[in-house]
Design brief:
Helix 1 packs across helix 2. By secondary structure, the protein is of the alpha+beta class. The protein has four helices and two strands, in the order H-H-H-E-E-H. The N and C termini lie far apart (36 Å). Helices cover 53% and strands 14% of the residues. The protein has a single domain, classed as Winged helix-like DNA-binding domain superfamily/Winged helix DNA-binding domain (Arc Repressor Mutant, subunit A, Orthogonal Bundle).
Length: 108
């Protein structure tokens, strides 16, 4: 399994959450709202390209719409390998974070 960077993880989880509405602009908006930070288009595009290269997402051209002047959106969908990569990452994080909340913070 090819490891995920933090940005790739965030973009991949956004694709998972957005389902059939996952495309560049919707992913950017989703991440900007959730992280309370304005994401640039390039901050989303680069991880999208990396995720596609790794086989964790597939892209396809959606239908043309009058709202977009007849242009089509490049849609994203998560692959089985992408789901497996997220599951593995989640399991690793659960192990690493397991005892975190049990720490006495006033001693740090």
């Amino acid at each position: 399994m090819i490891p995920l960077s933090r940005r790739e993880e965030q973009v991949l989880l956004s694709i998972w959450n957005l389902k059939e509405d996952a495309y560049l602009i919707s992913i950017k908006k989703h991440l900007s709202i959730l992280t309370d930070t304005e994401w640039s288009l390039s901050a989303v595009q680069k991880p999208l390209l990396q995720l596609e290269r790794k086989g964790y997402i597939m892209t396809y051209m959606g239908e043309a719409s009058a709202k977009r002047g007849g242009r089509r959106k490049k849609m994203c969908t998560i692959t089985k390998q992408g789901v497996e990569a997220l599951k593995m990452l989640k399991n690793e994080q659960d192990v690493l974070w397991k005892d975190f909340l049990d720490v006495e913070f006033n001693t740090i």
